[in-house]
Design a protein that fits this description.
The chain is an all-alpha fold. It has 18 helices and no strands. The longest helix has 32 residues.
């Protein structure tokens, strides 16, 4: 590669490529592991409770540390933090593949989640630093397309690797990818950091936010199993409420706060984050529950179920960058509103599926959902970051990704509770399919109500224009 290819106007696109390469690996791990759980259980001779922690350890570390990761990236250097997270993630992936028992695997998955939490906000803040505002929507659209594609293709790739190579390779595949991503990041990403304020970490804010998010996420994960009114879950929700309230009170009175709460006074920032929470709820509703429907009711294999999502994946790849370009021209309001409205239609279409439905019946929902996700994800990210100064890009990205992660956990918890309430029979019982479908339909219609609310939020709270708005930074 010649030196001239990565300088000047081309360099920012090479930077986007390097960031997207690593982003694909992060997002893939959100869904690739699920289909391999039975094989992991057999290989390590572990039970269901430990298998749940193989997933939950990653999810918890990812959700709890993203806000901190975004702040650290702003203070100490976005490339430095991104590469540090990449080293952690890659090393932990190797440890996961080599794990001899459940304890080592769960510990390595926790480190993987921590590495992803350092990387994820940094990807967006690096893009914000590399691209001028008039091109940022297009860049973030590509970022969103990569993210959505990785989530959608995870079950298919996980099924193929598990069936034909072995479950360890869902982790080993990250090692060469991580090494290449490290080399690319070192060569193609310029360092950037906040030029204002001290370099001290808000330890009180870090502790209260991390504890509150940990309690909230864990409660959402365990609520259906333990019962929403069980003492354990009620205590966790209480701890979350106390800690997050304390975090808000602390941040209001600290000069060097981890999170400037005045950001939420901007309707575009607040609306974009709310829409991000709702679109994640919808995405997990589609990927998680439609996948279960295909395997438990239609009898699809994991590979076939993953392949069925390919039309949606292809449309996300195409529509997300296009939505980004449209955002650069007309602003994020209508792409978000239209995208969320399309997701509402997709969820409704999926709710009409029955015991004898096939690929042709699922295809309309896949097509509409793919366009909807591609249309909504990038513009809402661009909208949120357009309200944040470059000095706070990491924090803004951390807030957004935290809302997304909480939205995913909330979607699985709420929809799972609705499905569980309708099912009284074991999967082998004759009445199970009809009971599951009743809960499935109610859950997806509930998701459709949430995304419809997201469409209204997009149309009313998001600014018409995606322009620099930095009064918060100037007010300091």
């Amino acid at each position: 590669m010649g030196e001239g290819l990565v300088t000047g106007a081309n360099r920012k696109w090479w930077t986007l490529g390097a960031v997207s390469f690593a982003l694909f690996m992060i997002m893939l791990d959100n869904t690739i592991v699920n289909v391999a759980l039975p094989s992991i259980g057999r290989g390590l001779e572990i039970g269901v409770s430990q298998l749940e922690w193989v997933v939950n350890a990653y999810t918890l570390a990812f959700a709890v540390l993203m806000l901190t990761g975004g702040r650290v990236a702003d203070l100490y250097g976005r490339r430095l933090v991104f590469m540090s997270g990449l080293v952690l993630f890659t090393a932990a992936s190797l440890a996961c593949g080599l794990a001899p028992d459940a304890t080592v695997l769960i510990a390595a998955r926790t480190v993987q989640g921590a590495g992803a939490a350092l990387m994820m906000p940094a990807t967006l803040s690096i893009i914000s630093a590399a691209f001028p505002r008039e091109e940022r929507g297009t860049a973030i659209g590509i970022w969103a397309g990569v993210s959505g594609t990785a989530l959608a293709i995870g079950p298919l790739l996980g099924g193929l690797l598990t069936e034909h190579v072995g479950w360890s390779w869902i982790f080993f595949v990250n090692v060469p990818v991580g090494v290449v991503a490290l080399v690319a990041a070192r060569a193609l990403i310029d360092e950037s950091k906040s030029e204002h304020g001290s370099r001290s970490i808000d330890l009180a804010g870090l502790l209260t936010s991390a504890t509150g998010l940990l309690a909230l996420t864990y409660a959402l994960i365990e609520a259906n199993g333990e019962g929403w009114t069980s003492p354990q879950i009620l205590v966790l929700f209480a701890v979350a409420a106390v800690c997050l309230t304390a975090f808000v009170l602390l941040e209001r009175h600290r000069e060097e706060a981890m999170l400037d709460l005045r950001l939420f006074g901007n309707s575009t920032f607040a609306g974009a984050n709310t829409a991000a929470l709702l679109v994640s709820l919808a995405m997990f509703g589609i990927f998680f529950f439609v996948s279960i429907y295909m395997q438990n009711i239609l009898g699809y294999s994991a590979v076939r179920a993953g392949a069925t999502f390919l039309p949606m994946t292809c449309l996300i790849i195409v529509s997300a960058p296009l939505a980004g370009r449209i955002t650069d021209r007309i602003g994020p309001r209508w792409p978000i509103a239209v995208g969320m409205a399309l997701l509402t239609v997709a969820l409704y279409l999926f709710s009409r599926l029955g015991i004898h439905s096939g690929f042709r019946d699922m295809l309309p929902g896949m097509l509409v959902g793919g366009v909807g996700m591609g249309a909504a994800m990038g513009p809402m990210t661009a909208a949120a970051l357009s309200t944040v100064s470059l000095d706070e890009a990491g924090v803004g990205a951390g807030v957004l990704t935290t809302f997304r992660q909480i939205g995913g956990a909330l979607g699985i918890a709420i929809m799972g509770a609705i499905v569980a309430a309708a099912v009284d029979s074991p999967p082998s019982a004759p009445g199970y399919p009809l009971e599951f479908l009743t809960g499935f339909r109610h859950a997806l219609l509930t998701g459709a109500a949430f995304t419809l609310a997201g469409a209204v939020i997009g149309a009313t709270l998001i600014s018409r224009e995606d322009r620099a708005r930095e009064p918060l930074a100037a007010a300091r």
